[in-house]
Amino acid sequence: MLDGVRPAARSGARLHPLKADGVVPLPAGTTLMHLPGRAATVLQRDGNPLELGGELLPLAAVLPVGHLRTLLPATRPLQGSSRLPLYGYAAVAEHRGQLVVAATATDRFGWWMPSRFGGSDVAAGVERAREALPANRLVGHLAVCALENRCYTAQNTFLRRYEGALPASPACNADCLGCISLQSDGEAPAPQPRMRFAPTWQELAELAEFHLTGDDAAIVSFGQGCEGEPLTRGDALVRATRAIRRRFAAATVHVNTNGSRPGVLRRMIAAGCNSVRISAISFNDSVFRAYYRPVGYTLDDVMECGRVMREAGGQVCLNLLTFPGVTDSPDELERTAQACRDMGVHQVQWRSLNVDHDWLVEVLRRRDALPPQGIGMDAAYQRLSAELPGVVHGNFTRPWPATESAQHSGIEPEGAVVSSISP
Ligand code: SF4
User: Does the residue 199 lie in any domain?
Assistant: First the structure.
């Protein structure tokens, strides 16, 4: 315990006191992590910063799903230190004998409560899938995700409930600084290594059938953390979607995407896709480019993806990759609100961006893309909520009723066979 100093946190590059009214007790499922190669900063009584040296290691909290980080840890990388693994590090402190974190709860949707995951029934579900789909490569791939990487969506797939995973692409047309499946410069390990094969549309449709015949299953989702960009697999996605829609008229057929290919999304919608979640860190071109490093697409394509789904009557979600000091800057908030209106967004999903916070700040600074100041993440949440009446704010995709056009468009492609799988 250190006397005479107060805990500090950061918003972007700016130091802030970590105050009692800006923290909550650690939510169940929080992971505490040391930050090696970093020095922590605290505030002295006079408000001046003090960097702690010696053997003291900074501590950060990684929040469970349904919670949003509001401030970053106050750290500085030491000379020669490595980049941190990709997690959404939040500022943590001790208050009256209890650890507290800079966070706010954003969604309590029961499907994703951590207590519902990790049971021994997952392994049994994997075995059932192996027996039902012995030649389907997605089963082996998702078994690793479910059992080793503890991915909740992969576990759902085998338990045949809620939202199931249909990873589709080993390739991507972006190179995000915070990509959790591939770090192109190899400086940090990717926590969910990228799938190495391109599943056929039949493999995708078969796995969807395995999942959707479960009693509590409602959604299948292309675009997972363990893959690249699903819209780069246009033909496979369109054919798989058609087959799924033909068999499951009421299911939500969803795609998580970087929003790069509205033409492909349009074809998927015609085949029966009725929900999209578009990820974005920013609707400011310089921040977007610095972070996504997109190849062959622009923010105009991203916006168009929202519009085409909205016009077709499907669900449009924005996966807002938040970073205190960027997301909550007044200019960013104005652009985000305008983009939501233009795209007809139904739901904003507030996510803590998984990235080495010191590195991201440095990259944005070098590109002159770091906003001068944020208004605070809580205030940002309130402002966007007020500016977007009728839009839901949360964390998780909900089922969406299939539109009439989607229900009627699931015409099976020539030669298509979707095997019937006994439950
Ligand atoms: S768009 Fe997705 S898969 Fe592609 S680099 Fe970014 S995070 Fe990775």
Answer: yes
Same domain, 60 and 160: no
End residue of a domain, out of 49, 71, 105: 105
The contacts of residue 330 (CB under 8 Å, 6+ apart) are 375
417 CA distance to ligand 1 middle (Å): 31
Residue 23 tokens read as 């923290």
- Regarding the beta carbon of 229 and ligand 1, being less than 6 Å apart is answered yes
Name the stretches of the chain with pLDDT < 70: 1-2, 118, 403-423
Q: Tell whether ligand 1 has an atom less than 6 A from the beta carbon of residue 188.
A: no
Q: Considering the domain boundaries, does residue 418 fall inside one?
A: no
Residue whose Cα lies nearest atom 7 of ligand 1: it is 179
Answer yes or no: do 211 and 310 share one domain. yes
pLDDT digits (tens, 9 = 90+) for 63-120: 998 899 999 999 999 999 999 999 999 999 999 999 999 999 987 777 777 777 767 7
264 CB less than 6 Å from ligand 1? no
Q: Are residues 123 and 21 part of one domain? A: no
Compute, in degrees rounded to 10, the torsion defined by CA atoms 184, 185, 191, 194. Answer: 20
Q: Is 123 helix (H, G, I), strand (E, B) or coil?
A: helix
Ligand 1 within 6 A of CB of 299: no
CA atoms within 13 A on the CB side of 97: 0
> Is the C-beta atom of 228 inside 6 A of ligand 1?
yes
Torsion of CA 358, 359, 363, 364, to 10 degrees: -40
* Whether the Cβ atoms of residue 399 and residue 218 lie closer than 8 Å to each other: yes
Q: Whose CA is closest to atom 3 on ligand 1?
A: 228
- Mutational pocket test of ligand 1: of 86, 182, 229, 321, the residue with most ligand atoms within 8 Å of the beta carbon: 229
Q: Does residue 280 have its Cβ closer than 6 Å to ligand 1?
A: no
Q: Please give the residue range of the domain that contains residue 46.
A: 5-105
Atom of ligand 1 nearest to the CA of 194: 3
Residue 83 to residue 90: CA distance in whole angstroms: 16
Q: CB of 276 closer than 6 A to ligand 1?
A: no
State the closest ligand 1 atom to the C-alpha of 181, by its place in the atom list counted from 1. Answer: 8
Judge if 152 and 49 occupy the same domain. no
C-beta separation of 317 from 346 below 8 A: yes
pLDDT of residue 16: 93
Q: Is the CB of 58 under 6 A from ligand 1?
A: no
Atom number, ligand 1, closest to the C-alpha of residue 173:
4
> Are 275 and 219 within 8 A, CB to CB?
yes
Tally of CB atoms within 10 A around 95: 13
